[in-house]
Amino acid sequence: MDAYCSETITELASALIKVQRQMAPATKDAVNPFIKNKYATLNSVMESCRDALLANGIWLTQLPVPAPFELGPGYIGLLTKLTHAETGQWQSSLTVVPLPKSDPQGMGSAITYARRYALTAMLGMITEDDDGEAAKIPPKNSNRVKNQQNAVDFNKNPQRPTRLQQSINQPDAANLPQLEDVVFQHVTAQDGRDCIIATGNTQPNREILRSMGFSWNSQRKFWWKYSDAA
């Protein structure tokens, strides 16, 4: 018996073929603020496959489980299992991802990320690479900007630093305090305006950020404000 499937999966495989025929494409309904590309959220992925799975008697479960012991701390596992309700035949997959932060928010972000990738892989869904940057641990006490286009502009005009470059060298001038484990970054919003986002260990500093005019984006899990906001 294979560790990742039941002894036989004939009926399950037949049902999954029907699922793949009936699945709607996953809509890329969000934009990664770091690398500017579109991707399908977990809601979009679930909407594209839920009806097809239910119609063909496939029970989907996704359970957080301990990561392999040999990896050490800082990881979480996700067990994704497809079960054929009529026969009990099943197939599963174990996904292991690093925790961006060792707190409930970091765990929730990692689980959501793993659920989306595991499900699309098991069902053969094709989506664009997305917010892998969110699973990386931000550098400590760093205001380094990851916007490649702005870096190119600095090289073209080294004698006239832009407002973004000035805010890196002189954070007080941009009213950006040094907060432990908080990273400030400039990004371009969809409306073309320059934004500042705050990521990292922001929750202990939420009152400070709120007093500075930042707002919490519960979907993307970061604080933000327009650069020219009062």
List its salient traits.
3-stranded antiparallel beta sheet; 4-stranded antiparallel beta sheet; about 230 residues; alpha+beta
Q: Can you tell me about this structure?
A:
With 230 residues, the protein is α+β, with helices and mostly antiparallel strands. The protein is built from six helices and nine strands, in the order H-E-E-H-E-E-E-H-H-H-E-E-H-E-E. The protein has helices at 10-22, 42-55, 104-123, 148-156, 163-169, 206-211; strands spanning 30-31, 38-39, 58-65, 75-84, 90-98, 182-188, 194-200, 215-217, 222-226. Mean pLDDT is 75; it is low at 128-174.
Order of helices and strands: HEEHEEEHHHEEHEE
Quote the average pLDDT. 75
Helix content: 25-40%
Number of helices: 6
| Poorly predicted segments | 128-174
- Give a short account of the largest sheet: 4 strands, antiparallel
Computed structural class? alpha+beta
User: What sort of overall outline do the alpha carbons produce when their principal axes are compared?
Assistant: elongated
| Content of β-strand | 15-25%
How are strands sequenced across the largest beta sheet? 6-7-9-8
